[in-house]
Amino acid sequence: MMGSPPVLLASFDIESAERGEPLVKVASYVDRALIERLHQYPDDLRTIDRRKFEELVAELFVGFGYQVELTKRTRDGGKDIIAIRRQEVNTRFLIECKRPDPGTPVRVSAVRDLYGVKVDDGASKAILATTSYFTEDAMLFFEKHRWELEP
Fold this sequence. Notes:
Strand 4 and strand 5 form a beta hairpin. Helix 3 runs parallel beside helix 4 (136-144). It is globular and about 35 Å long. The strands form 2 sheets. The protein has a 5-stranded mixed β-sheet with strand order 3-4-5-6-7, sandwiched between helices. Strands 1-2 form a two-stranded antiparallel ribbon. The longest helix has 14 residues, at 50-63. It has 4 helices and 7 strands. 30% of the residues lie in helices and 23% in strands. By secondary structure, it is an alpha/beta fold. It has one domain: Trna Endonuclease, Chain: A, domain 1.
């Protein structure tokens, strides 16, 4: 995919740390040109840069009204995105993004790993976002833990 890299807009709110919120809040990860291109050519999701896929998923959760933290590229602790919403009930989602090579499914081992990270972290739920599909065993594991995991 061609084009300029997305612009990262962030705000810094020193008082947010006192409220237990992230110090840096991201306003927009994904540029409009990328969104328009994916709307026109949805198959590009299968080959999109893996980091751009993470940014796109993060942007979706910003749109859903969550405070979003995109983790660092490496040694991310098994999660790519942390999405928090403070409303009637506080929720904290861990999101792992998988953009495997086209035709390669997400296996049960990746789902089990995410479940372990969710339990260790104490998050409300863990979500595995992918551009591919899940193996039958992976879907069975999701179903077994449907209140804690989401494909």
